[in-house]
Specification:
Number of domains: 1
Largest sheet: 4 strands, antiparallel
Number of helices: 3
Order of helices and strands: HHHEEEE
Helix content: 25-40%
Strand content: 5-15%
Structural class: alpha+beta
Strand order of the largest sheet: 1-2-3-4
Radius of gyration: 15 Å
Length: about 150
């Protein structure tokens, strides 16, 4: 199998399996109920679509409209708050962790936390690495301008 076809097959398998763990530093260890949060599930589904988009185009969607096309029929809003997710392909970095918050809840609608998609910086020839995380309010400057990619 040629390298391009093999890479695409691996990305498709990753998309079918999901886009990473649903773990989070904010997740209470004694209460696994957050694992079935509908917002986390929705972001996980969108994350899979982002993997497919990046596999085909070698970049993240650049605009909200591009994200809508990538997401297909998946709603781009939090099922808990009803507010649209915030999308920024150059979103804020997470302190002491790698990656950027590229898609996240508009507010802390989940017990003082926000669900978000964290994406590692894209590298030529490498698939997107993304995961859904639960971020406590106050850990990230959500409204600050992003730093340079």
């Amino acid at each position: 199998m040629n390298p391009c076809r093999r890479s695409l097959a691996l990305v498709l398998l990753a998309a079918l399996a999901g886009c990473g763990d649903r773990s989070s530093p904010a997740a209470p260890s004694a209460d696994p109920g957050w694992l079935s949060d509908p917002c986390a599930d929705r972001l996980h589904d969108i994350c899979g679509r982002l993997l497919l988009y990046c596999a085909a185009r070698h970049e993240l969607p650049q605009t909200q409209e591009d994200l809508k096309r990538a997401a297909g029929n998946l709603p781009l809003s939090c099922p808990t708050s009803g507010k649209p997710y915030v999308y920024n392909p150059n979103g804020p970095r997470i302190p002491r962790r790698s990656g950027r918050l590229i898609l996240f809840d508009a507010g802390p609608s989940h017990d003082g936390c926000r669900w978000a998609v964290v994406a590692e910086d894209l590298r030529p020839g490498k698939p997107l690495v993304a995961r859904v995380v639960r971020m406590p309010e106050g850990q990230v400057a959500w409204n600050s301008p992003p730093d340079a990619p």
